[in-house]
């Protein structure tokens, strides 16, 4: 894809060592959602902290003590993520979730095709969005001053990625809460939860957006002492502020969509926004309009993320929440298990 031979060869080696990491995702993420749906977030938090300490130690040993270099970093990721996933599975299967885990059963395959459709749509939804921003880095690497452009874009996207973790938490929490309320048939509570999540996320985004603008020529010192890179990041800081603001809205909307089971819609929306509008606009702004890395990133922000946010908002505003609650409630009843103690109390 135009990279140097050394980079391409090293990437191939690292990619092979990261294969175990990919399988750990499939094992760990469902366990996270399983616990979050039961409000057991502290369990995930403590396991995360323990794995973070383990990861720091294994990274130091493999990278520096054993001198495995970047391969050692990949091995440390493999170990950490698998320990995390196996730890969560041990917690779930060791009797600490008695009301929701009764062991393995063939009932897990009931309605399997419907589940596959939801999961596939959700996977496509996330991949289309993430891949589009990886393509941006490849596009930036083809500019005249590629090193400077990639450095500046990487710093801005790293800051955006750190800040996005806050709103990613809102995405997960909103998705779980919306799904729970819909399953209980409480469509009014669903709308209220969505509004509260949106208000909190946007408030946090506005605060960080303001800090970014105020410190636009300072925060790059965290990563580099290069005057040219710091100046380039300062020029891109206003785009970063806009990205932060949109990131405070779009993840919450995505969380609501995930909670309502409309992942397939978002997959089509992402395909349209990021690949039909965003990437072509980034190409036009970056090369035809000669705006460089700012044009490439700005084209994706305004043509991709901004348009996606507007479309998602329109879809959800026009959504029939009461009808969706009825459908979700019917699906929930299919899996509800009568509690003998509750039946006795109701009989009394």
UniProtKB/TrEMBL annotation:
GO terms for cellular component: membrane. InterPro entries: MATE_euk, MATE_fam. It holds the Pfam family MatE. Belongs to the multi antimicrobial extrusion (MATE) (TC 2.A.66.1) family. Keywords: Membrane, Transmembrane, Transmembrane helix. PANTHER family: MULTIDRUG RESISTANCE PROTEIN. This is Protein DETOXIFICATION 27. It is a multi-pass membrane protein. It is found in: Membrane. One of its GO terms (molecular function) is xenobiotic transmembrane transporter activity. The chain crosses the membrane at residues 12-31, 43-62, 68-92, 196-216, 236-258, 265-288, 294-317. Its main location: membrane. NCBIfam families: matE (TIGR00797). CDD domains: MATE_eukaryotic. One of its GO terms (biological process) is xenobiotic detoxification by transmembrane export across the plasma membrane. Residues 328-348 are annotated as: Disordered. It comes from the Eukaryota.
């Amino acid at each position: 894809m135009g990279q140097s031979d050394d980079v391409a060869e090293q990437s191939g080696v690292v990619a092979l060592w990261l294969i175990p990491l990919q399988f750990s995702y499939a094992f760990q993420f469902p366990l996270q959602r399983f616990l979050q749906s039961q409000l057991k977030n502290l369990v995930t938090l403590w396991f995360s902290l323990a794995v973070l300490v383990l990861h720091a130690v294994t990274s130091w040993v493999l990278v520096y003590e054993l001198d495995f270099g970047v391969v050692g970093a990949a091995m440390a990721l493999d170990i950490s993520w698998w320990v995390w996933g196996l730890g969560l599975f041990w917690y779930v299967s060791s009797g600490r979730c008695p009301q929701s885990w009764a062991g393995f059963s063939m009932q897990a395959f009931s309605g399997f095709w419907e589940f596959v459709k939801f999961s596939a749509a959700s996977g496509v939804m996330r991949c289309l969005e993430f891949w589009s921003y990886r393509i941006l880095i490849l596009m930036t690497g083809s500019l005249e001053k590629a090193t400077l452009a990639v450095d500046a874009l990487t710093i801005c996207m790293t800051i955006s990625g750190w800040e996005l973790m806050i709103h990613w938490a809102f995405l997960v929490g909103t998705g779980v809460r919306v799904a729970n309320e819909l399953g209980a048939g409480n469509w009014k509570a669903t709308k209220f939860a969505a509004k509260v999540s949106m208000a909190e996320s946007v408030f946090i985004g506005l605060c960080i957006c303001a800090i970014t603008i105020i410190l636009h020529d300072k925060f790059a010192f965290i990563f580099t002492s290069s005057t040219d890179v710091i100046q380039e990041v300062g020029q891109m800081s206003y785009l970063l502020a806009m990205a932060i603001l949109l990131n405070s809205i779009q993840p919450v909307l995505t969380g609501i969509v995930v909670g309502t089971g409309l992942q397939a819609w978002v997959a089509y929306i992402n395909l349209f926004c990021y690949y039909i509008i965003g990437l072509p606009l980034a190409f036009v702004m970056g090369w035809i309009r000669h705006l460089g890395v700012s044009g490439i990133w700005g084209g994706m922000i305004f043509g991709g993320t901004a348009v996606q946010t507007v479309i998602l908002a329109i879809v959800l505003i026009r959504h029939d929440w009461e009808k969706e609650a009825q459908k979700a409630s019917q699906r929930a009843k299919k899996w509800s298990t009568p509690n003998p103690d509750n039946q006795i109390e109701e009989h009394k």
